[in-house]
Amino acid sequence: MTSPENQDAMLPTPEDRTPENAQTENPKTSAAVDASTAGSTPADARSLSPDDADLSGIRGWLFDLDGVLTPTAMVHMHAWSRLFTPYLEQHGAEPYTESDYFAYIDGKPRYDGVRSLLESRGISIPEGDVTDAPDDDTVHGLGNRKNEAFNQTLAEEGVEAYPASVAFLDAVIASGCRVAVVSSSKNAEPVLAAAGIDDRFEVIVDGLVAARDGIRGKPAPDTFEHAAELLGLPTTACAVVEDAESGVRAGAEGDFGLVVGVDRGVGRDALRELGADVIVDELDELLPAVHRAAAATDGDASAANDRTTASPTPEPEPREDHA
Ligand SMILES: O=P(O)(O)OC[C@H]1O[C@@H](O)[C@H](O)[C@@H](O)[C@@H]1O
Helix, strand, or coil here: 88? Predict the structure, then answer.
């Protein structure tokens, strides 16, 4: 079993990111974002610190999985590298780097990741279909090859959830919030089960659900919106929790109450510019805000209770009729 700590140690830092992969477009401002400025805080930074976050209107939490709840972004990353490092070499293309993962693949549905990376190298191959064998030279064949590598690592190493994410998850559940997982991965259920946290979620919208129901994947907000609907909550009462560029874009694009960016390597400035409202390194930084919101709700409830149990309002004195 690989511990989250060990996997964390392998995570790329913002410094590992190259300027060329960090060029993104802010869906809210349409401004070009250059994450090579990571480390400096723009003067107009609008993201709240976790200490200032007001969670009082939030009744549902929509969690991404890989990189937010479990360190499986690393497992995906390695599986993609096992696919594309030899593949690009064989095609005489620019070598595959970790930066390519963040720029073209992270958070997106499997075959969208393949298309996006191949497009970046000007390589065009047939689409094929999901039944393609892993050694077929098609978009689906390559995706299936990557999936074999992913499942092999998962079986060999297992997965442990991030302890801080589990602490946060349990705190929001205890505070009465509803929770869902929203993942592009078709392997979300086995990953949640391997991490022992599958029983905590009442709703799971994963790559299988999206493909079955024809829901657009991240960076479109649709899978998050679908999860809010299944929870029976308006999107404005839900918070999106994401670590990937495509996922934060999806959250910013929708009308959600809050977008929390977890910095696992994308970089704080890039997350902020993509539309994250609050940025943390670990989710337990938001525990004080959860407790504050729960205390305020309890306070409201007991005040309402006091009002209903207080002695009834006396009948008004009969008005003297001076007419
Ligand atoms: O191939 P899967 O398991 O369906 O996953 C698709 C994608 O799922 C996302 O959650 C990951 O961030 C990506 O790295 C991954 O490629």
Answer: helix
